[in-house]
Amino acid sequence: MIRVAVLADIHGNLPALEAVIEDIASQQPDEVLVGGDLVGRGPCGKDVVQRVTDMGWRSVRGNHEDYLLAFRHQRVRSHWLTAPEWAAARWMAGELGEVAASTLEGLPLTLLSELAPELRVVHGTPRSNSEGIGPWTSHEQVEAHFSTVAEPVLVCGHTHRPLECRLPDGLVVNVGAVGLPFNRDRRAQYALFQMGHDGVEVEFRQVAYDLDRTFSDYETSGFLSHGGATARLLLMELELAAPFLVPFIEWARARGVRPLESEVGAFREFYDPDESFRAFSCRLKELEDPSQSLPKPSRP
Ligand SMILES: [Fe+2]
Fold it and tell me: Ligand 1 centroid vs 83 CA: distance in angstroms?
């Protein structure tokens, strides 16, 4: 019976990764694979890349690997190289250093398990590392992604929310996030697959770790002081295990303001992390066009 652990979305959170390494050691899987986003959205990307390399674990390349490499090579819009709203990305790209950056450059977009070749790992979907399969993805869309791969077990990350979708011919699993979960559970999360004669069993694991160490990394590394609004919003994501950064950017766009630190307080007044994405989008539309105003949706 082959057992494979898959973890993803570590996001520069070294204490969370170390807790998962310890938990994986207690589970003794036959193979461990990483679903990308080792870096970005957090302060210790270089150390995370080193730790994963030391463990000998293979990884795919997530969108945040691409993102920070683009900053390192200055393959971004020229004003992003100086604008304050991109300060966190510049800081994280610089923090990586040459060795980690060249490791990330070499990562593939997709991986097959060596011991369980029926299992394929991608970051987002088989066609893109920047689109995700989440609770909002329709069954038809999941089937459409699944139909583009030959293997019966498709494993992904990216949305930071664990998910298991059984299909007539196989299985699609999102393993959730190690470093920055968005399912209101602050613990580090990953999945264990057991490939048996009767099919594949999935166990979602949640590992408690010392979040105060991660908060301290934000401060001592300089990420919080250099990262502007982005670093502050990522800290909220860690604390509440819910998305803040992307909603903030969308809110700023709807209001026609730049996503700067001075706007974070007003955003917090507006934003409810438990509101559905659909309800939040409706309220953003009202901001853009007040004539379309609808009553504020009540929370369940
Ligand atoms: Fe991610």
Answer: 23
Please give the average per-residue pLDDT across 41-64, as a whole number: 98
How many angstroms separate the alpha carbon of residue 64 from the centre of ligand 1? 7
The DSSP-derived string for 106-126 is T--SEEE-SS-TTEEEESSBT
Tell me, in angstroms, the distance from the centre of ligand 1 to residue 11's CA: 7
pLDDT of residue 291: 64
Domains of the chain: 2-207 (3.60.21.10), 244-292 (no CATH)
How far does the centroid of ligand 1 lie from the alpha carbon of residue 192, in Å? 19
Residues near 59 by beta carbon (within 8 Å), at least 6 away in sequence? 33, 34, 35, 36, 38, 52, 107, 111
- Ligand 1 mean position to 9 CA, how many Å? 5
Q: Which two tokens stand for residue 29?
A: 């899987």
Does 297 have pLDDT greater than 70?
Answer: no
Helix or strand holding residue 4 (H, E): strand 2-7
Residue 217 contacts by C-beta under 8 Å, 6 or more apart in sequence? 13, 14, 15, 42, 43, 44, 223
CA–CA gap between residue 18 and residue 30 (Å, rounded):
19
**Sorting pLDDT into bands at 50, 70 and 90, what band is 106?**
very high
Q: Please tell me the distance between residue 292's alpha carbon and the centre of ligand 1 in angstroms.
A: 33
